Each structure stands twice: as structure tokens, then as C-alpha cells.
């Protein structure tokens, strides 16, 4: 069981271990990561590790949870004050792509969770979708989006963000290649023209149909 620190110093140490785990799991993968690599990266002794985490699996699952919490916070904070759901989507996607550019480990670690900890993977997606469904349901009731199933829309939107981010952020480093080559986009961020095309697609799917006589 993860132990919650009782002091500010303990919180800092635990945060250092999680940051180190993010680096190590991203660089080496779960199988080749080790507690000694994590503690070396964090600059603490192995005994200190066990004050906060019982095992490599436990810190991995906590890292998935930590990344999930931070990305959701970034997206929610970015969307605050938006005039409508479309504007909130735009702000939220911008925040998501910024976060993934700063934390590319999010993709790699979530992908590994499919085999390492299916429970953590399911929780990661569930927590994102739950908030999404609520926001889309509210927007539908207010007439900001069309009569679309919020659950289907939430999963579809999450898939769009994940795949666009993977193509242009995670796999971006390298020479510019063919449009269908995900390993050679020549960028480590989502280009403005790509973002705008994505939002055009999303807006077309979400916006209510125009009534006859609308301009």
C-alpha cells in the first residue's frame, strides 16, 4: 500500500521518486526499469524508496494515477471561463497537447499499463471519460452541442486527442516523411494547421444543426 508522507519533506521526496520513475519507465520500459535505477535518478537510497512504495509495480501504478491527475487538471483549468463547449474543447485540447509535449512518458507508460496493470489503464481512461461525459451532457442540455450521445462523443474525442498527439507529439522527432508515416512528421508539437483541421472536424461533429432560416 502506498504510504502518504506526514511531512513536507516527505512529500518532496515522494514527488522526486515519482518524477524519477517517470524518467526511468519512459527511457527503459517497465521490464528493464528497476528500483535501483529509480532511486539513482531521484538521488535517494533504496531504503528510502520502501518508505513510500512497496514495489516497482506500486510506483508504476501510482505514476499512471499521478499523470492522469495532472493531465486532467491541466485540461480542466484551461477550459474554465470558456463561453461554450466548443471553446472549452479548443482550450482543453491545447492544454492536453502541451502536457504531452512536456510529458511524453504519458503515452509510453499508459501503453505499458495495458500489460503491466490493466486495472491502472482502465482507471486512467475511466477518470478522463467520466468528466467528459458530464461536461458534454451539460452542454447538450444547454443546446451548445447537438443531440449526440455524450458517452460515444467522449470516447471519440478522447481517441482523436490521443491519436493526433501520438502522431505529431510523441512520434514527431525526425525528418519529414510521407503523410501516412507516423514516425516522420518533423515536429514535436501539433502544428497550428493540424490543430485547426482537427477542431474543424470536431466542431462539425458537435455543433447543433442549423435551423432553417439561420444565417
Strand content: under 5%
Mean pLDDT: 89
CATH architecture of the largest domain: Orthogonal Bundle
CATH topological fold name of the largest domain: Tetracycline Repressor, domain 2
List the domain count as a whole number: 2
Q: Under the CATH scheme, which class of the largest domain?
A: Mainly Alpha
Described by its quaternary structure, the protein is: single chain
Helical residue percent band: over 70%
Q: Using only CA atoms, what is the Rg?
A: 20 Å
Q: How many E strands? A: 0
- Per DSSP, the total helix count is 9
N-end to C-end Cα span: 60 Å
* Broad structural category: mainly alpha
Order of SSEs: HHHHHHHHH
Low-confidence stretches: 182-186
CATH homology-level superfamily of the largest domain: Tetracycline Repressor, domain 2
| 3D shape | elongated
Major β-sheet annotation: none
Protein name: TetR/AcrR family transcriptional regulator
InterPro entries: DNA-bd_HTH_TetR-type_CS (IPR023772), Homeodomain-like_sf (IPR009057), HTH-type_TetR-like_transc_reg (IPR050109), HTH_TetR (IPR001647), Tet_transcr_reg_TetR-rel_C_sf (IPR036271)
Keywords: DNA-binding, Transcription, Transcription regulation
Organism: Protaetiibacter mangrovi
